[in-house]
Amino acid sequence: MGVEGCGKCLKYLVFVFNLLFFISGIGILATGAVLAKEQGGYGTLLPSIPLASAANLLIATGVIVVIVAFCGCVGAYKENPCLLLTFFMFLLLIFILELAAGIVGFIYRSDVEQYVSTDLMVGLSKYNTTNEEGLTTAWDKLQDIEKCCGVNNFTDWGNTTLYGNMNSVPPSCCMGDDNTENCGNGVLLQRMPNVYTKGCKDALKDDFSKYLYQIGAIGIAIGLFQILGMVFAMILYKKIREQGEYA
Fold first, then answer.
1. Strand extents, DSSP E, 140-219
2. Residues 98-119: what's their mean pLDDT?
3. Which of 32-41, 67-76, 182-191 has the lowest mean pLDDT?
4. Domain membership flag for residue 135
5. How many CB atoms lie within 10 A of CB 103?
6. Residue 116 domain-assigned?
7. Rg (CA), the chain
8. What is the domain extent for residue 182?
9. Mean pLDDT for all residues in the chain
């Protein structure tokens, strides 16, 4: 026999809660996918910071939310104490991990810029080399989308050999419609090169700052959902167990 009275109301409350949680997970996943397409895989440029890509973080969060919410929905609808307890434990574990990640990120936040600079400089030296097609594409998309060139500025490309010389930049650095295949050849010798002068490190920092607020807001919202979900799931779990004992 299913739960009755307040227990029945609580059952549907937990179900609706998890249904909304499930839908929000799909929304987060979709946002991450769109962002990944826009960013063009910037994570390839930052191997020291695998979760620095907002897109990767949102996709991972969305997948976890969808799976956990599904367990909660089924557990509430079927009045399955095992699934409800699993749902509760998953939420508690994720909440603890999120809290730990937030604390670690806050403590080491000052080191992020150094990791970004180091990774970008290493990636710059591997541009257009054998077996580095993904990194090359990521650099081109980064420079084209962010309207930037090099790490600190466009002269960083003078440390690499492009077009057979050390005075050139990739076509993705060229401004406006002047991004033909050879537009960056020898431009570092020109007084007024028609290329973006802003470094990509600053562009990425601006991006991270912008997405940090979005991720923080999403994280706070998810945290509140998790706390409410744990409370409702545990109350319903106890109601089902109590009813089973007295049945």
1. none
2. 72
3. 32-41
4. yes
5. 10
6. no
7. 25
8. 122-200
9. 78
Question: Residues 73-96: pLDDT tens digits?
Answer: 887 888 788 888 888 888 888 788
Residues 16 and 92 in one domain: yes
Number of structural domains found in the chain? 2
Cβ of 5: how many Cβ atoms within 10 Å?
A: 8
What is the spatial distance between Cα 136 and Cα 133, in angstroms, rounded to a whole number?
5
Report if residue 117 sits inside a domain: no
> Collapsing DSSP states into helix, strand and coil, what is residue 183?
coil
Q: Is the pLDDT of residue 177 over 50?
A: yes
Same domain, 172 and 103: no
Task: Give the angle 26-46-67 at the CA atoms, nearest 5°.
Answer: 20
The answer for residues whose C-beta is within 8 angstroms of residue 117's C-beta and 6 or more apart is: 151, 152, 201
Say which amino acid occupies 79. Answer: E
Please identify which residue in the block is written with the tokens 């599904």.
70
Strand partners, 162: 165
Domain contains 1: no
